[in-house]
Design a protein that fits this description.
TIM Barrel, 12 helices
Length: 340
């Protein structure tokens, strides 16, 4: 099982100091966080994509390429890449290039995006989100799987005798995850192609998403990619970790209370039931095991360590603590359960 961090690239004022980082500070902070994650034993670092004011994550491939040149082991992913608004030829070229340069350490998570402004900025209709995701991914797969592509569809001009370059490294495209919060069509797409299905359960109870995971597993098996239990599942969440759980709660509360997504909610309740864990190393371990009980055997767990505008210095404390007291225990527990 892989454990990793993801950065969203949002710029927020520190809920305690009131200071707002610059765009450059925020970008370079994510680079330092990724490097520390590798040093601390994490397996993956992912970076999101947004095109709205208050975000610096408009070009995740650029950020991941910069990180690739300063790391050697950690896998680099996106969280997410917008399949609805990015040109598919460009996606095929950019991520195959990053695959070559990183030594095959790259994969990507595809998503539709949550902001109507992003669709209109790229001359797309938000109401076409699902249809765009389905058609666009079909073309992206074809560009990677076939050396010479002839294609026509609804949302872009046709391609005739076209070859995407460079070709995927060793003929094998980067692994693709389909990210979803509540769209069964995305689970359907992941199952059809035999790709990974990633659930980012930051906001509602874990059990809510179990039905989407089960639906995906059934489709994975129906399309003859393997047994349902062998399907590739990932889960997202957030954490703020300190040796004492009460210290974590006290320190994180200003960031939670100031986040518009959690307005009117209770930190302790959210931490207990969703993918967010604010507490001790032991509570992070318990949450991962609870997620496995709900989702079955899953292959990737990602956390946001700076969710809500947590300053970089506090993020590094969490990385150090999780790397030393959580990851070794989880790996040992999972190894023992598989051997049993």
């Amino acid at each position: 099982m892989e454990f990793g961090l993801f950065g969203l690239g949002d710029i927020r004022a520190d809920a305690v100091s009131g200071r707002t980082p610059s765009e450059q500070e925020r970008l370079l902070a994510n680079v330092r966080i990724a490097k520390h994650a590798e040093e601390a034993g994490f397996d993956v670092y992912a970076f999101g994509e947004h095109h709205s004011k208050g975000w610096v994550s408009s070009s995740p491939a650029t950020v991941l390429g910069f990180i690739a040149g300063q790391t050697s082991r950690i896998k680099l992913s996106t969280a997410v890449t917008l399949i609805t608004t990015n040109d598919r030829v460009r996606l095929a070229d950019v991520f195959a290039t990053l695959q070559h340069l990183s030594g095959d350490r790259v994969d990507l998570m595809l998503g539709r995006g949550v902001s109507a402004d992003t669709y209109t900025a790229f001359d797309k209709n938000p109401q076409d989100g699902i249809a765009l995701a389905v058609e666009n991914y079909g073309l992206l797969r074809q560009l990677w799987d076939e050396e010479v592509v002839n294609w026509s569809g609804k949302y872009r001009s046709p391609l005739r005798d076209f070859t995407a370059i460079p070709r995927p490294l060793n003929g094998k495209p980067p692994f693709v995850w389909h990210g979803s919060i509540r769209s069964p069509e995305i689970a359907q797409q992941a199952g059809r192609y035999g790709d990974g299905f990633f659930v980012n359960n930051l906001f509602v109870p874990i059990d809510f998403y179990a039905r989407y995971v089960d639906f995906y597993r059934q489709l994975f098996a129906q399309h003859k990619h393997g047994r349902a239990e062998d399907a590739t599942v990932g889960a997202g969440g957030a954490f703020y970790v300190r040796a004492r759980s009460q210290d974590a709660i006290d320190e994180y509360r200003p960031y939670f209370d100031g986040h518009e997504m959690y307005r009117g909610q209770n930190l302790e309740t959210v931490s207990r039931h969703t993918g967010m864990t604010v507490g001790s190393p032991g509570q992070v371990i318990e949450k991962v095991l609870a997620t496995r009980a709900a989702f079955g055997d899953y292959q990737r767990q990602l956390w946001s360590a700076d969710f809500g505008g947590v300053p970089e210095k506090e993020v590094h404390k969490t990385i150090e603590l999780v790397g030393s007291e959580v990851l070794p225990v989880l790996r040992r527990e999972l190894q023992d359960s598989q051997a049993a």
